[in-house]
Amino acid sequence: MSDTPLTFERDIKPLFRDTDRAAMSKAFDLWSAADVAARGDAIAARLRDGSMPCDGPWPAERVATFTRWLDAGASP
Ligand code: HEM
């Protein structure tokens, strides 16, 4: 539901595969709410332009979930 408050642990972290986390671990930890919030704008831009993940873009609805979480304050 679009008015449900989103949290990182419940709604966002499960979107990142262990392969995503491993691929990006030198830059940031995709399973860390603090890391993802700190890089939120860069992550959102890459998700939106389809350049990340490297092996295929997310569906628009999933990108929208991420940006909604970020825009609502990136709750852990
Ligand atoms: C949802 C999952 C992913 C997200 C949100 C993501 C996000 C990002 C972001 C924000 C950057 C820019 C980092 C910077 O400039 O500091 C980046 C770079 C990069 N990512 Fe990912 N990534 C994901 C998955 C992957 C996967 C699966 C691979 C490949 C195995 C990958 C490979 C790379 C590489 C090689 C770079 C550096 C080159 C470039 O900037 O294009 N990433 N990623």
Task: Give the ordered list of helices and strands.
Answer: HHHHH
Give the end-to-end Cα distance, rounded to a whole number of Å: 19 Å
Mean pLDDT over the full residue set:
96
Contiguous runs where pLDDT drops below 50 for at least 5 residues: none
Q: How many domains make up the coordinates?
A: 1
Bound molecules: protoporphyrin IX containing FE
- Main beta-sheet annotation: none
The chain-level structural class is mainly alpha
- Fraction in helix: 40-55%
**Helical element count?**
5
Radius of gyration: 11 Å
Strand content: under 5%
Number of strands: 0
Shape: globular
Question: Can you walk through the features of this model?
Answer:
The protein has one domain (8-71). The radius of gyration is 11 Å and the shape is globular. It contains five helices and no strands. It is mostly helical and 76 residues long. The longest helix is centred in the C-terminal third of the chain and has 12 residues, at 60-71. Protoporphyrin IX containing FE binds at residues 16, 19-20, 23-24, 27, 39, 42-43, 46-47, 52-55.
